[in-house]
Amino acid sequence: MSSKLSEIESRTASARQLETVIGAMRGIAAAREREAQARLAGIRSTAATVGEAIGMVLAAAPSADPAASAPPEHAARIIIVLCTEQGFVGGFNEHLLARVERLKADEPGEIFIVGTRGVMLAQERALHYGWSVGMASHAEDVMRVASQLADAVFARFRDQASSQVWLVHATPGPGLDERIVTRRLVPFDFTRFRVASRGQAPLLNLPLDGLLRGLTERYVYLELCEGLMQSFAAESAARVGAMLAASRHVKDRLQELTRDYRIVRQDEITAEIAELAATGACVPPATSAGVSRFLRPATTD
């Protein structure tokens, strides 16, 4: 076998190994996306319970107006952007940071970045950020990241009477630009939890303001959990799409290598036939006659 055929076979073997790795990565990403989607129901159920408790506290103190202490509309802002921890997600992080840059252009704010890949891209784009943390690598790690993020946010804006907190993240589905969500977490919208007063007021062992503040912080934490889980699911879905594109590219490359192998092999066979034909034409006449005698069919008497 020629060196050229050996080289093509080596490239083909490498491409097949790469195809196997891509298939495994696609399967892992798909499994993580399904797991994240399944966990969203539990987070939303817990948030609904906390929201009901907030409504009960508000109903117990109808004279209290939590919105009265809301920060002014144009206040110092914290913009949280949820990026990815790992690569192979196409333009996922680029679209998110582009949205953050537009928000910051409208009104200045401090940027919190979740995800190592987002930090690296922000540094490349000379986008200043005030705080960062790694993104969850597994669905069960989302709660830990949400706790770190909530602690950093509360510590930052608790000392500032006027502040806003915005969350920017992607959600699973087609069309990345359409799936980027921008929502305000602080000032907190209490109007969505107002409920009718019940016949019997709930038994409260804590001051209303302290209880309401604790429930509010808990609800914001759950909103961060939901955003992180949706972002993790969207990241996994983007990786599935990237692996599908890579798999198609590898299959095309394998077809090219197979075609090249057949062409080279055919050229070598043609060259061998031509060499044999040239060798047969140079056989001496006496030798050719002797060979013909042995090849002559036998006769019967």
TrEMBL record:
Pfam families (alphabetical): ATP-synt
GO cellular component: proton-transporting ATP synthase complex
GO MF annotation: an example: proton-transporting ATP synthase activity, rotational mechanism
Subcellular location, record wording: Membrane
Keyword tRNA processing found: no
Keywords assigned by UniProt, alphabetized: ATP synthesis, CF(1), Hydrogen ion transport, Ion transport, Membrane, Transport
Membrane topology, record value: Peripheral membrane protein
Role played: Produces ATP from ADP in the presence of a proton gradient across the membrane. The gamma chain is believed to be important in regulating ATPase activity and the flow of protons through the CF(0) complex.
Family the UniProt entry places it in: Belongs to the ATPase gamma chain family.
Protein's name in the database: F-type H+-transporting ATPase subunit gamma
Native organism: Paraburkholderia tuberum
Record lineage: Bacteria, Pseudomonadati, Pseudomonadota, Betaproteobacteria, Burkholderiales
